[in-house]
Hints:
This protein is mostly helical. 50% of the residues lie in helices and 5% in strands. The longest helix has 32 residues, at 98-129.
Amino acid sequence: MNPVSASAVSLRRSRKTRQPSLMGWRALLLGGLFWSPWAWPQAAVFRCGQELTNLPAPGQVCERMTLPNYTQIEGPPLLKKPSEQARPNAALPAPLSEEQKQRRFQARAILEDEWLKAKEKHAKLVQDFNQGQPTPLDGEAKNHAKYLARVNELQSNMQRSERDMLALQRELSRYSDAPVAVK
């Protein structure tokens, strides 16, 4: 027999007869647990001025922060949709007394009066604004900055009156089923 072939035969025999030891598996399992990600310590967090980081720049003055363990806080239970929630007597509004009806009627009359005044004021502002080209007043022809300031003021007043009219319309819609249309 050739010496090379004898060593090859002995290697084949040793591989066949070699069985994994129980101690080797234990060491592998223990090592795997030790090096598993959940067993690693928490990463360090540093405060560098107003910035929080886990990798401070070299030469940067940073303070290591100690963080508490993770805590999970349970939130409130999810609410059901409004249509699914039980609302006793929500469909039936309480009947209004005669005094309450009179107050609602007076409030609606006042709101309608205010809305008409706001509409007239808005119409006058739109007319004065003249699509961004209002007619110059005395002294504005020579002073263009004064003219531009008045144009900006007219525009902001117009926007404010539109918002006022929308707010009045919302209030009016609370007092009737047919809201007033803003044009």
